[in-house]
Design brief:
CATH architecture of the largest domain: Up-down Bundle
Order of helices and strands: HHHHHHHHHHEEEHEEHEHHHHEHEEEHH
Number of strands: 10
Helix content: 55-70%
Oligomer: single chain
InterPro entries: AAA+_ATPase, ABC1_TM_dom, ABC1_TM_sf, ABC_transporter-like_ATP-bd, ABC_transporter-like_CS, P-loop_NTPase, Type_1_exporter
Number of domains: 3
CATH superfamily of the largest domain: ABC transporter type 1, transmembrane domain
Keywords: ATP-binding, Membrane, Nucleotide-binding, Transmembrane, Transmembrane helix
Membrane topology: Multi-pass membrane protein
Number of helices: 19
Pfam families: ABC_membrane, ABC_tran
CATH topology of the largest domain: ABC transporter transmembrane region fold
Largest sheet: 6 strands, mixed
Strand order of the largest sheet: 6-7-8-3-9-10
GO molecular function: ABC-type transporter activity; ATP binding; ATP hydrolysis activity; ATPase-coupled lipid transmembrane transporter activity
Radius of gyration: 36 Å
Length: 588
């Protein structure tokens, strides 16, 4: 029950509203107990009139009016309670979503390296629904059940102790059977949740990579995978259903047996005159009302178990340590002309070998630096460390004369504009994608698009800069998406510019146009270029060559091309490839 305790604690900001709801529920549940008592009094007056002709008609009318007023008041309070309940539901969903989303935004990059986005979203939805279900149950069922059960047994004991005892023993019987049933159900629910996370995560991945799935004709395989998972989920559900209905049969059987005994006692005592007709009506109504808490008990325990298992991953994520508090204010003024220094920096990802091994280099102010090496050499890792997505395992990183250890992520990232290798775009408009992270107006966005040689195609879109680009820019070509990213970097205009294969998706003409635009953008900036095509880095000031996580060479493009080493070898491979292509078409 530890997660239930966490649910109660996490909802502390809403406790005042919960208290108001609880008071209203207590009043309405108490008013419901008044109706059987009034019915008893009405029946007694009618019996007096029929049997002894001594009934008081004015008292009878008064009782009917009181019953009407009580019923009307109960209806009004129920409507108010339901309205407040709806308000509470909205606030609870908002509160839980914000709590979860805040945590996700502050988690380190390493968490997302090992998790699937669809799985995270599924855990969020399941957590919110299970917590919401429990809180709704707590306010609308648990309190009324306790109040009604207590007063029902009390009133029954006043009129007939055996009937009160028989009604009372129903509660531990129902509670014991329901508890055992829900515990078994909960164990299976944890297994089912894991399978659902896998299936939802896979569906999310398939939708994100639908072109890949279709081009490799993997629709059947993906369908079979999800179908297989759903079959396993249904088997678990069938097991849960069997358990529930078996115990439900035992509950109902015990109820019918005890109700049979209660009816025998009530009708026999009424027949003998030990109970009046009105008392008989009252007892039967109270016993009938007692059935609702009994049936509710099974529902309540099911909701409790659902909250316990459904919120498990939700709270596990909330308990992860936050590494980046996004509401943190920057601690330093922006450095106008920064430099970057790596001093004996080593790094390794979780459960991996050393990716960067004692790397040392200097990227000077306003310098154009290229990172060169084979795939997996450590180029992207260096970029991630510069962006403070990760902390080095050892060594020191400096920006200007500031130690990274003493800077927060905002201090660092405010200095950097970035163009990713992958097209990192939202499904919103061109305008919103370009001015993301800035407060630029339309005029400034259009100017940035022109500098990135993107405005010509953007203005031809159905709604120009207000056209939506689709998820991850699916409605744009690869080159168009890349130029939107470049326009975004131009608009941010930070003193450090990182180009991670920024022109890799462009044709020769577009690449030349973008390179011309980038030449203007790169003025008076420290530019860090990650590139495999050496044609894009021939005008840089410095090349840092990386091999197996080590810095093996540093120099100018001209100097390194004449020097035996990895750079000249990679350059030679590219030149040979181009030469063969030209020879094939008899151009060389």
């Amino acid at each position: 029950m530890k997660n239930i305790t966490k649910i109660i604690k996490i909802s502390k900001p809403l406790h005042r509203l919960i208290f108001i709801l609880s008071v209203l529920v207590l009043i309405t549940s108490s008013l419901e107990l008044v109706s059987p008592i009034l019915s008893k009094l009405v029946v007694d007056e009618i019996v007096l009139k029929v049997q002894k002709n001594t009934g008081d008609v004015s008292w009878l009318m008064t009782l009917i009016v009181i019953a009407f007023i009580v019923s009307l008041l109960n209806t009004v309070l129920m409507s108010v309670s339901n309205r407040i309940g709806d308000h509470f539901s909205g606030l609870l969903r908002k509160f839980l979503t914000e709590k979860f989303y805040t945590k996700v935004l502050t988690l380190p990059q390493s968490y997302f390296d090992s998790e699937i986005s669809g799985k995270i979203v599924n855990q969020l939805n399941r957590g919110i629904m299970s917590i919401y279900g429990f809180m709704n149950t707590a306010t609308n069922f648990i309190l009324p059940m306790l109040i009604q059960s207590f007063f029902t047994i009390l009133v029954l004991a006043y009129y007939n102790l055996p009937i009160a005892f028989l009604t009372l023993i129903l509660f531990p019987i129902f509670m014991g059977l329901s508890f055992y049933s829900t515990v078994k159900w909960g164990r299976e629910e944890v297994k089912k949740n894991k399978l659902e996370d896998i299936s939802r995560g896979r569906i999310q991945e398939v939708i994100s990579n639908i072109k890949l799935v279709k081009s490799f004709l993997m629709e059947s395989k993906e369908y079979e995978l999800i179908s297989g998972l759903l079959t396993k989920i249904n088997r678990i559900y069938a097991k849960q259903s069997n358990t529930f209905h078996l115990f439900d049969f035992a509950r109902n059987t015990s109820l019918h047996l005890i109700l049979f005994g209660i009816n025998l006692i009530v009708f026999y005592n009424t027949f003998k005159g030990a109970l009046t007709i009105g008392e008989m009506v009252l007892i039967l109504q109270l016993v009938n009302q007692a059935r609702r808490p009994l049936f509710g008990m099974s529902f309540i325990l099911t909701q409790v178990q659902a909250a316990e298992s459904g919120s498990k991953e939700f709270f596990e994520i909330l308990q992860l340590p936050s590494k980046e508090i996004f509401k943190t204010k920057r601690s330093i003024d922006i450095i106008k002309y920064p430099s970057v220094v790596f001093n004996q920096v080593s790094f390794q990802y979780e459960k991996s070998q050393l990716v960067l091994n004692q790397a040392s280099f200097v990227m000077k102010t306003k310098e154009k630096v290229a990172l060169v090496g084979e795939s997996g050499a450590g180029k992207t890792t260096i970029v991630n460390l510069i962006l403070k997505f990760y902390k080095p395992s050892s060594g020191q990183i400096l920006i200007g004369d500031k130690d990274y250890q003493r800077l927060n992520h905002i201090d660092v990232r405010q200095l950097i504009s970035l163009v990713f290798q992958d097209s990192e775009l939202f499904s919103s408009t061109v305008l919103e994608n370009v001015c993301y992270g800035t407060t630029a107006n339309e005029t400034e966005v259009i100017k940035a698009l022109k500098l990135a040689n993107a405005y010509e195609f953007v203005k031809k879109l159905p709604q120009g800069i207000h056209s939506e680009v689709g998820e991850r820019g699916i409605r744009l070509s690869g080159g168009q998406k890349q130029r939107i990213q470049i326009a975004r970097a131009i608009l941010k205009n930070s003193p450090i510019l990182i180009l991670d294969e920024a022109t890799s998706s462009l044709d020769a003409k577009s690449e030349k146009e973008v390179q011309d635009a980038l030449e203007k953008l790169m003025e008076n900036k420290l530019v860090i270029i990650v590139a495999h095509r050496f044609s894009t880095i021939q005008n840089v000031d410095k090349i840092i060559v990386i091999e197996d996580g080590r810095i093996v060479d540093v120099g100018t493009p001209q100097g390194l091309s004449k020097k035996t080493g990895l750079y000249s070898s990679l350059l030679q491979f590219q030149m040979e490839g181009n030469k063969k292509l030209l020879e094939k078409f008899e151009i060389y």
